[in-house]
# Entry
Amino acid sequence: MKSDTKRGIWRMVHAERAALTDDLARLDPGQWDAPSLCEGWTVRDVAAHLVDAARTTRIGFVAGLVRARFDFDRQNARGVERERGASPQETLERLRRVASRTTTPPAPLDTRLVEEVVHGEDIRRAVGLVRSYPQEAVVRALRLQARTPASFGGAKELTARVRLTATDADLSIGEGPDVTGPALSLLLAVSGRRAALDELGGPGLPVLAATS
# Structure
């Protein structure tokens, strides 16, 4: 990946972290405990996960996965517990401190955009907040999800059966009957967030719904 592209992606990642930190600072204590769109996690859990993800290095990821006996869910749960802190304010401060980090696990850099956008919506939709995401960030995240196997949380197999067509961006991915809607809604749906299905349409929607 060219250095200019990498710098551009990191700028988007850092902007999303900063925007989410600002939004979280507006929450009251009860909202931190609200169930997020990420099944089984509260708003605070998702924020703690984002802290853990921002701290993760390539070597640290592999070592953590070995300690978790190669169970991604167990590894993530341990990261959430480690980074929650004693209070929502401590979680927020930890997120603020990692906002400018540029460490990653051994994965494509665009996974950082998937993390920030999808988990940002996991939080915002749970507490009634709205963000207008940069189109490039959403499109890059959706393109990555479309080429990532389902075993790694992506939609590669799905896009062999339906075509995802954004109504607000120049983007059409996949083969088969169309699923149409905003790029953000498509990204959320292929990332397993059923709350976005009502924002989509097209003859391929039942296929997508059956896999979300």
In short: The first helix runs from residue 3 to 24. The chain has a mean pLDDT of 93. The chain is about 55% helix and 5% strand.
